[in-house]
Amino acid sequence: MENFVNPHRDNGHIVDIVLVMDDGETKFVNYDAREMNSYSHNSIPKDANLVNFSQPENPEVQLWYVDRLVTVGKDYITRRDRAMMHVRQLSSVARCYDEMLKMEEESGQKYDEILRIREDGYLLKNVPLLHEIKSRPGIATCACDSWRGVNDKGTLFLREYAETVLTGPLLALTKDNKSLFSKDATINNPETLMHSVFKTSHASIDTDSNILVLAPVRINQYHDIEKCLDMMWFGGCWECRYRSLINQTTVPRCPIRDPRGAKTALKHVKCGEIK
């Protein structure tokens, strides 16, 4: 609201909010996301359009996708179960597209730009409209946490690419689309899949500027503190690009910073080496 909705409304733009949420017992890609989902329900803007959407419990997954998923660091889950979680996540994203079409039909007007944010995404700075940027990319994502693809915490894009961005990854994941990748290519996360799908739109994709800067904020528990919000940032990209923004943010944070050991890992990082 503070870094996108309110500033653009103040400038005379019409900004509608849609929240696709699941009240059921569906599993999420990240185990701590369920509590974040509950937290989000307590923070819904009054004028938001809330869509209760039940994610598929046992979705079909393509064998080509399961076989290519990387398992390093994911010993707690099988490739197939991981792929099913990705289908659930992308099903919610695709539901956003359906709701957008419905709202456009009701208003008789099409939107100019769309900003999609995952339930744990937190904007660290104001987000400009792509129409107001000289280079005007068709799609913009955050530069960090891309995992050999594009950051999936959020995407800002022009209306003409809405179908590709919101429904393309799910369609690619539920059909025989292994042609999106080379024969020996592996898939780390949904980010890898999304990047391949976005490229099929032939849009100009900005993954390296400061147009969209957002980090995941999740509920954690530390020592004697019952629950707190924690900004989960790590890696040289964040240290070199957005350290000042992280220090300036007003989001409530846990007293123990960098839960994934970012500072320790960054002792040997030189910003000039980060691309």
Molecular structure report:
This protein is α/β, with parallel strands linked by helices. It is built from 9 helices and 9 strands. It has helices at 5-10, 33-41, 63-68, 79-107, 162-174, 190-199, 236-241, 243-248, 262-265, and strands at 18-21, 49-52, 113-117, 121-123, 139-141, 154-158, 205-206, 214-222, 225-231. It has a 4-stranded mixed β-sheet with strand order 3-6-5-7, with no helix packed on it. A 3-stranded antiparallel β-sheet has the order 4-8-9. A two-stranded parallel sheet has the order 1-2. α2 links the parallel β1 and β2. α4 runs antiparallel to α5 (162-174). It is globular. The relative contact order is 0.13. The model is unreliable at 32-39 and 257-268 (pLDDT under 50).
Strand numbers in spatial order across the main sheet: 3-6-5-7
Total helical segments:
9
**What is the 3D form?**
globular
Query: pLDDT under 50 segments (min length 5)?
Result: 32-39, 257-268
Helix percentage range: 25-40%
Q: Give the number of DSSP strands.
A: 9
H and E order: HEHEHHEEEEHHEEEHHH
Rounded mean pLDDT is: 81
What's the end-to-end separation, in Å?
Answer: 31 Å
Strand content is 15-25%
Largest sheet: 4 strands, mixed
Q: What structural class results from the helix and strand content?
A: alpha/beta
Estimated radius of gyration: 19 Å
